[in-house]
Write a structure and sequence with these properties.
By secondary structure, the chain is mainly alpha-helical. It has 6 helices and 3 strands. The chain is globular and about 50 Å long.
Length: about 120
């Protein structure tokens, strides 16, 4: 699991739900705010974890901070840039996981943004 905010509760929820289904889920969780580093580094723990699923958990709070830090002109293209950035990250994970020995591409779950 890669997140840019604390993800311990989501981790517990996933493991608890898996247990209720009779599965013994092992959830590897990257350190806080390591999404890009874990994905872009071919030697990262993400690729060593041999995960069947990769959960990407971005937070709307961090997205909002990035947006507010931009100039008025940059804000006009923020949505399209953000979509392109996530597409690039997902494609990178898929390519790198396929290139690992004895591996299939892991399934990627990108959680969408939600606000209170």
């Amino acid at each position: 699991m890669l997140a840019d905010s604390p993800s311990q509760l989501l981790n517990q929820t996933i493991r608890g739900y898996a247990y209720s289904l009779g599965w013994n889920a092992e959830v590897w969780e990257a350190d806080f705010n390591q999404i890009e580093r874990q994905i872009m580094d071919p030697q990262s723990e993400l690729y060593e974890s041999n995960s069947e699923f990769v959960v990407l958990f971005p937070s709307v709070q961090n997205l909002k901070k990035k947006f507010y830090a931009l100039s008025k002109e940059e804000k006009k293209s923020f949505a399209s840039y953000t979509v392109s950035h996530w597409q690039m990250l997902i494609e990178t994970v898929q390519q790198k996981m396929k290139s690992l020995p004895d591996r299939q591409a892991g399934k990627i779950i990108l959680l969408n943004y939600a606000a209170d």
